[in-house]
Design brief:
Elements lengths: L1 H15 L2 H13 L4 H21 L5 H26 L6 E7 L7 H12 L2 E5 L6 H11 L3 E5 L7 H12 L7 E5 L5 H7 L3 E3 L2 H11 L4
Parallel strand pairs: 1-2, 1-3, 3-4, 4-5
Helix pairs in contact: 1-2, 1-3, 1-4, 2-4, 3-4, 3-5, 4-5, 5-9, 6-7
């Protein structure tokens, strides 16, 4: 199928970190009538997952990973307005504050989760990477969020996920938010041990948990 070939080309452009090539293929896919959500979920996201896996296996290094992330961001600037158009009058299902914890600069998984949450009707405030635990809590209060989603790829940074919950408890607002954790170092056992409300092994898991948290799952 022509669309399957396009999805493969999108994935390959992400893996190669070729921003201009990716943008050209995105425009081609849009002209062919492929939905922005399918471009992301079936084309770009598999490529980003492959980049993350290669990085974890030391087959590529930080410069290559950053090139892939920059290509992704460039394509998302084109696709996000079209996602909103495609959603039309879609009712917002909830608000999410999303970020990668303090000391961790990995953004690939976070970006995929953010894109999929938006496709599912969530309003997302992405704090970026290297985010202090207190900043998650402050922004959640300002943004009137329903959910705080925190990613940690490294074993040295995963304790920051516990710190977010401790900050919520210290402010007396723990019960106000659903706290979801994920990333390469997180596990269900870890989530249970720190009192998180859910653990997402994949972006799809994270979205399913978020929808359940707001009564849509």
């Amino acid at each position: 199928m022509p669309s399957e070939a396009l999805y493969q080309r999108l994935s390959e452009a992400i893996i190669s970190g070729d921003r201009n090539k990716l943008l050209a293929i995105v425009e081609e896919a849009l002209r062919e009538g492929i939905a922005p959500s399918d471009i992301i979920e079936r084309g770009m996201s598999p490529g980003m997952r492959e980049v993350g896996e290669r990085f974890a296996r030391y087959e590529i290094y930080l410069p290559e990973m950053m090139m892939a992330a920059e290509a992704w961001e460039g394509a998302m600037k084109v696709l996000e307005p079209r996602l909103l158009e495609a959603g039309g009058g879609q009712k917002r299902v909830g608000r999410v504050v999303l970020g990668t914890v303090k000391g961790d600069i990995h953004s690939i998984g976070k970006n995929i989760v953010g894109a999929m949450l938006k496709m599912s009707g969530f309003e997302v405030f992405d704090l970026g990477v290297d985010v202090a635990a207190s900043a998650f809590v402050t922004k959640a209060e300002e943004f009137e969020a329903d959910i705080i989603a925190a990613s940690a790829l490294m074993s040295t940074t995963i304790p920051q996920q516990r710190s977010i919950i401790e900050h919520l408890e210290a402010r007396g607002v723990r019960q106000r938010y659903c706290v979801l954790v994920g990333g390469g170092s997180a596990t269900q056992e870890w989530a249970d041990s720190i009192g998180a409300d859910g653990y997402g092994r994949t972006a799809g898991d994270a979205v399913a948990l978020a929808l359940k948290a707001v009564g849509k799952g």
